[in-house]
Amino acid sequence: MSGFENKTIWITGASSGIGKALAIKFSSLGANIVLSSRNEDELLKVANQCSTATLIIPLDLAKQDDFPEATKKVCEKFKTIDYLINNGGISQRSRATETNLEVDRLLMEINYFGTIALTKAVLPVMQNQQRGHIITISSLSGKFGFFLRSAYAAAKFAQVGFFESLRLEEERNNINVSIVFPGFVKTNISQNALSGSGKKHGVLDNNQDKGISPDKCAQDIVNGILDNKHEIYSGGKEVWMVQLKRFFPKLFYSILKKQSGT
Question: pTM value?
Fold first, then answer.
């Protein structure tokens, strides 16, 4: 028994990368899967790779007025929402001084406000059930800033503050909160990242290309959820930078400033 049999797991950003890997993994463990992203065609392909019941809910994190109705559809189909995995979002590749303020606002709107708006739409369901688990996929950029990611890091830092507070508040309702901090994972996040002007970056980062597979990351997340970890880490040696920052901040900075943003 995996512990996920017949549970309902709603995953945003499920059309590719980590979200897709999570959907297929959780389906193999017996869960019902709700798939969300803007790309309905790709969601259909993911659904075809799942072995359990699925529901496709196309969702744009910038269109938050749609979230209550989307939540209602999930409950009509599966009656419960046991896990919400906030994986959807967008990244950035541009210097802070070369990034239009509209891009800063857009990343905050999608990565922060979109994520918390969906969470707030789902929370009453979990509170009524008196159980649930919210998992938010942050980034190492939610632990420390990095080259070409000022807007992205800002939104990820904001996520961390919100969900750490939410964990304390919702523990009385038996709702768990986990924050995932992936390092470099080989996905299309850098290709889809925005430049300073708001256009697609369109380039696979060298660091991303050498990263772990989405499947490996998904397994690390599953293991962390089963252990009810508050923080889940997945990646290569770059993950150790979090501990380095905590215990050896000068060494951390001397290493970090020599790294490439791509």
Answer: 0.96
Those residues whose C-beta lies under 8 Å from the C-beta of residue 163, and which sit 6 or more positions away, are 134, 136, 177, 179
Query: For 8-256, CATH number?
Result: 3.40.50.720
Q: How far apart, in Å, are the Cα atoms of 226 and each of 4, 73, 134?
A: 9, 27, 13
The domain spans of the chain are 8-256
Quick check: 88 and 62 in contact, CB under 8 A?
no
Helices (H), the chain: 17-28, 40-48, 67-78, 101-107, 115-129, 150-170, 189-192, 206-209, 214-226, 241-247, 249-256
For the segment 219-254, what is each residue's pLDDT rounded down to a tens digit?
999 999 999 999 999 999 999 999 999 999 999 999
CA 88 to chain centre: 5
Selecting among 83, 112, 152, 233, the annotated active-site residue is 152
Question: Is there a catalytic annotation at residue 152?
Answer: yes
